[in-house]
Amino acid sequence: MKTLFSLIFTLLFSLSVFAQQTSLKPELIKNFQDMKFGMFIHWGPVTLRGTEIGWSRGHQVEMNDYDNLYKEFNPVLFDADKWIKTLKDAGMKYFVFTTRHHDGFSMWDTKFSDYNIMNTPYKKDVLMELKNACDKYGIMFGTYYSICDWRHPNYPISRIEGVEKPDADMDKFYLFLKNQTKELIEKYGTKILWFDGEWEKPWTHEYGQDFYSYLKGLNENVLINNRVDKGRKGMEGTTKSKEFAGDFDTPEQRIGSFDIENPWETCMTICNQWAWKPNDKMKSYDQCMQTLLKTVGGGGNLLFNVGPMLDGRMEQRQIDRLKQMGNWLKKYGESVYGTTGGPYKPTEWMSATRKGDKIYLHVFSLDGEELKIPVPGNNQVKNCSILKGKKLKFEQSKKELIIRIPAEQKLNVVTTIVLKLNGDSGKIEPIEI
Ligand code: H79
Questions:
Q1: Rounded CA gap, 125 and 393, in Å?
Q2: For residues 186 and 205, what is the distance between their CA atoms, to the nearest angstrom?
Q3: Could you say which of 46, 76, 173, 244 has the lowest number of CB atoms within 10 Å?
Q4: For ligand 1, atom 18: residue with the closest CA
Q5: Given the CA of residue 102, which atom of ligand 1 is nearest to it?
Q6: Which of 335, 368, 394 is the last residue of a domain?
Q7: What are the pLDDT digits (tens) for 251-307?
Q8: pLDDT tens, 333-364?
Q9: What is the atom index within ligand 1 of the atom nearest the CA of 250?
């Protein structure tokens, strides 16, 4: 009896391990990590008010007003081609679009809710246009999808006092989630399902597990973030333990901690608000570059968020800022794409990436002309230069590597230095500076 029990247990256990392994192919996640830089978009009828998507419903914007904004949503200057071209010119490789935020509005032609883009005066399936533009430019297409839906009658929570939901029914609501995400996978070919809003009580670990295997069953090549399940540690975004589903971690509005074991992606806004806000404070070029390079240097991807305006255009100042980043990446991209974070862990003033026998140092600030860092493990530095620039003099002892960077060689915002080693940089243990 005991052996039969343990046999069944072993069988079930190996089946579940098997399921986990087949659900995430290493090359799928490697390909994702190699891309490094993507664009997040938060957009919807709420841009008519300029307040935050989802969160302002029933707060800054009276609920009834919020829920009727779609009747006026007519972004006549929306041009999917222009958006994706902007993204491409920024050096970004993938795209994640808010298909349904916590407010419950569906930005595509869905069969499962009338509260969708086809019932606005605009009447066009913006999601399909974006998907087609991504295909045209060779950009990976992904979709943000909120698990909570504060407006949906079957979802138990509204977040607003005094609103009763007599039709609350989580199992019915879960069926709605399955139906909608099936459309995103089958009709729109989404490659990334970027969930959110999983932290509320009605969503459980059991739903999370079931949803993850359901979606992988529809297409095993869809990447799914860790917000599908209940394992996320707040805005830090890491996953509590292996028992929770999710292909990558999701630090929000912060650069994730150094981690080259578990895939992660920082999501961050180029201004302050996720959805467009008039005259929102925009990050400087310096802040944008440091955010990107410290994220990549820590082993992560950056999903950088833009909120387009109510007429469908992105703000010109944001397009210009992204273009500046793209111009940098055009020249120095080999130090970003396809690299691994480290071996030096990011600091305030420097971050590093590596590939093959090379280490790239991104120096943001340096007092004087000498860069002093620990030697890269057991390796010898063979030569050292500014990336795409002049050779630099250096000395190495057993412990220390000293690189001379003449003042006139220092570049604005970031100076990238390439070290060529006598061995594989991938094998070096992380180094704290
Ligand atoms: O979709 C974006 C956010 O709307 C969503 N996740 C990203 C990707 C998000 N979920 N939780 N949070 C953001 C954190 C919530 C912060 C809040 Fe607030 C503080 C909610 C209410 C007070 C920020 C400030 C949002 C509204 C005011």
A1: 57
A2: 25
A3: 76
A4: 55
A5: 4
A6: 335
A7: 999 999 999 999 999 999 999 999 999 999 999 999 999 999 999 999 999 999 999
A8: 999 999 999 999 999 999 999 999 999 999 99
A9: 8
